[in-house]
Specification:
Helix content is about 55%, strand content about 10%. By secondary structure, the protein is mainly α. It has one domain. The strands form 3 sheets. Strands 1-4 form a two-stranded antiparallel ribbon. It is globular, with a radius of gyration of 16 Å. The relative contact order is 0.14. The mean pLDDT is about 90.
Length: about 200
Amino acid sequence: MIKRLFDIIFSLLGIIITLPLLGVIVLLIKLDSKEPVFYRGARVGKNGKEFRIFKFRTMVPKAEKLGGPSTASDDPRLTKIGKFLKKYQLDELPQLFNVLKGEMSLVGPRPEVKMYVDMMSMGERSVILSLKPGMTDIASLWNFHEGEALRGSSDPEKTYMEKIRPKKIELQLKYVKESSLLVDLKIIFKTILKIFYG
């Protein structure tokens, strides 16, 4: 209950503080194309329950049909404004609404598409999905600019599966086992530092 109260207060504060920025981003996306501003992709949440994640749209229409879930920073599916949003993680800001709704938490294992969840072992799934997915976690800090790690790969999906996903799962399991309000505060602080100072 303390974590939920923390999420409500700080997601609401985050929305209020970033509202002018959110408005500017909406305008830039609309100027870039006539397609929808938001991306509402299906993700797997706590206890395997699916929900629709809020993100600013960074890709061309029907991008899922043109490639896999992994996105390199040089992905041709990215729009002009999309590249900028991805670089500074600004496409993730609308997830504050997911947090406010109770579908996500500020800190927790990053939500995955069903395809990746299905690849987890039963043990991994039972641990990782025991908490609400979050906007940031230990794995996010370890690989903050995932798109850059995939940049130049002839097969970003394969690179992700071989070089990123195993470590990501390991760190998500570590977070669940060590999670506490103090750990969450440290992760939020480090995430803010990453955004502003790289």
